[in-house]
Amino acid sequence: MSENAQVEHLVDKKYEAGFVTDIESDTLPPGLNEDVIRHISAMKNEPEWLLDWRLEAFRHWQTMHEPRWAHVNYPPIDYQAISYYSAPKKKEDGPQSLDEVDPKLLETYKKLGIPLHEQEMLAGVAVDAVFDSVSVATTFKGKLKDAGVIFCPISEAVQEFPELVKQYLGTVVPTGDNFYAALNSAVFTDGSFVYIPKGVRCPMELSTYFRINASNTGQFERTLIIADESSYVSYLEGCTAPQRDENQLHAAVVELVAMDDAQIKYSTVQNWYPGDENGVGGIYNFVTKRGDCRGARSKISWTQVETGSAITWKYPSCVLRGDDSVGEFYSVALTKMHQQADTGTKMVHLGKNTRSTIVSKGISAGFGQQSYRGLVHIGKDATGARNHTQCDSLLIGSTCGAHTFPYVEVKNPTATMEHEATTSRIGEDQLFYCKSRGIAEEDAVNLIVNGFCKDVFNELPMEFAVEANRLMEVSLEGAVG
Amino acid sequence: MLKIENLHASVDGKKILKGIDLTIKSGEVHAIMGPNGSGKSTLSNVIAGRDGYEVTEGSILFHGQDLLAMEPEERAWAGVFLAFQYPVEIPGVNNVYLLKAGLNARRKHLGLAELDAMEFMQLVREKARLVELDQAFLSRGVNEGFSGGEKKRNEIFQMAVLEPNLAILDETDSGLDIDALRVVANGVNALRSADRSIVMVTHYQRLLDYIEPDVVHVLAEGKVLKSGDKSLALELEKRGYDWVREEAANA
After folding, report:
1. Residue A86 maps to a domain
2. Class of B2-250 per CATH?
């Protein structure tokens, strides 16, 4: 099959699925036009302003072109061959009992102390949800409510808190920001909405584990997190749940807003389907993530572990608008087999004494191709801004590649910039050393890679760090030799 | 315990070892001495199983097993340990974590229960005292930022934890000041036992003042030219290596 045909085939999958499902009730046929957008908006019972917002995004999108500057290769995507609205999968598609669910996932649930009924629910097992009266989700929701925290699907937020959504939606990533963000704005179906009120420290880490009502958010997620003055929230995205989602294109938008003295910590472990060993299939992960440190002394930290997807195009960024605000980006990206990743960050320093830290660890194995692409911009008013960038690449084998594209724009002479970059191969010496101590080759590679990633893993919340370690091991299986 | 017969080995097509015969019994300490380029380190690496060393002839039996057919980690499980001449740094990998992984892999192989974190840390603390290794080193990255002396001490510490049956110390004394040498030697001496053999590869007699060998071999031009007791080492110190070469040539 030619590459073109492969993609069509995969896009077709979605198309076929569209027909299997009841078209009249919950799935639209492939294609994108204003009627489709009106339909999506109507299905979600959205207010007029949001429909207009979507349509404006769509009109803008039509004038735009797919970005071609990334160091990735893929055949053109036929956007008219994609179905833009599909209600949750039919229950028969999911696992029928917990026996069919990845035991590692269940172990994690157990660690989190989630009761059995909820484990089934979270794992997407086709059961009618029956909750224990003291279930974790209930306790969880109760706690959040007491704290005044809003955490719900964004479609629900549109209904329940329209003023908040209207006030912030698209203020960090405008509808016309880039090709994929525009597309997302036009057709997004769901995602998370979080609002932390003034002075509140969110009493627990918010995780998609708990966002059970919106477990099937599809390919165009839209997430909006607002941390009001002096609040704090840690949000965990992705998890390592088995992704049964067969969608080809995944174009999400995440917007974060941190007001004065607020802090947002956003952690991602991305493990979408990477395609097979021949590079057939897999997710195109074209995601726009941006945080706005709108208030003074605010702080936004991105931590990502990217091990999945056929192609990753992703630059979680921080706009450091408030004086003394802080942006951080910690990233581990792994490309193996035929995976391609062009990822990095943008730190836009606008306020005085703003600080940013970038730590990027890229690992390539097999035929993986990986690029770090980062921009540090120091605006003319950003007196005393500081940036420290560290980009390290690790190569396993001789058929993979690592590339670094750092961009620096400094418009204020008081800025302090530091950039360190290294590229290394897993040394034969290191491998032999480990082996001579009794550690088998694959374990030795995992050990060395995990050591390489340590600075980033240290930034992850506990459970995630454990997951990330495990994920790297799983992902590296067969990478050696 | 270890029986090497007619061992020939090349590196990049260049013949380095040209027929080594060596027998080491349980509990013995052997010193292998010889000039630069004599093949001492090659021999150490061939025994430990490093890539890039091609054995063209001969055999190495360890407890009757064909060592050359085994992977380096299998050799470690069987009880072979190499203290490296130049221990490599592995950034971010915790020193004791590496050791725990190695020890438990071996225990598993031997059908023993794996040590849990508590048991392991107890063992590690005890062994660290043996080579006067500061506790702070335990939690650092493997050899990361260690001084030359600290790296060598760390090697002996690893040996103490892994409790091998055959330990090869590849120029462990090089780069050590006299105090560090004493510490390392004390550690090695404490590890001498009836079921453990030790092979010391060294340039200098001074190590043998601290660790007394049962047998001393002179390796030159890829062969064991002469073997004797520790007085041979003293003689080498006095007279150099040339007389051994001449003697061998005349024989």
Report:
1. no
2. alpha beta
